[in-house]
Amino acid sequence: MTSPIGQQGVAAMTRLRKCARMVVLAAMSLATSWSMAQDNGVAGIGAAQVADPTPPRNMGGPGEVGKGPIVDAFSFEGNNKVTSAELAQIVRLKPGMPLSAALVQPDLERITAYYRDHGGAYVQPSIVENALNHVRVIFQVHEGVKWHSAGSVPQPAPKFLDAYWDNTMVCAAAQTGNDLCHMWLMKDGSFIIFDPNGVHRGRWQAGKVMADGRVPLCRHWEGQTVQLPPEIVAAKGNPYGGLPRAPGAPQPARICKVVDFQMQCTTYPDVQQLTDEQKRIASLGMVERNKEIGSCYSHGPHQVGDVWFEWDDYAPGQLGLDRQMLLPGHQ
Length: 331
Hints:
The chain is an alpha+beta fold. The chain is built from six helices and 13 strands.
């Protein structure tokens, strides 16, 4: 599904690019990184992005309603056994509400429950940005599908991923729009990702295209292409799965693993209750975790210029959502 970004969207992308320029200057000073990039068939290293280290107020997350992009409209697709008018009476999301996963997830559960008497269905939201901080939500209903699996055997990349090759996928904060990472997916199964931890190379594998039309890509980092100077690095990946610790409370921990091209995560209330091996895995920082365990994310059919929100990240950020966009070329 495509969504022209319009003038406001272009302005947002321009702001993201400006934010990247100071990191470009830092990266350019590291001559060794250029030779490594050339060895891998890459003309040059682009802009690694730095996250804003100061979280905004009213930041939402899973189970919490915060101020987010405004929902302009919502609709339904794929519902043949149940009318859109019926489903509209079920959902609580309304135009004018601020978007968050805490609002969308209960509606997914309501629609799924309603379909139990109509043959079952798998329901997934497609959240597309119409203009800067204005979105439309499309509840995609896959009737008769009770579970979607990506299988356990790597598959050839689907044709729709052609739009990703030689372009840049940007991940940004759902609420503030702060630039968090740039990724170059290569058709040969490699990738380069720029984030506050540096610039990393790695390999990806695709699972089976799922019932909702997306394909999971599991990525493993292999090497560091550029080590960013300390003054450029805004934030390092937190150990213990990035879970914060309340004053005086035990340190919780999250351990994730890859199962059938999906991330399965378990949260433990106290890291001291874990085995030594579990403690080791839980304490891995982002770089080490992506090398040893990897990470899997689903990608749908998008075109250059699309701006959308993903809702099922295994470790979501602001509002429980991830803002993503596809930019032309390597940036």
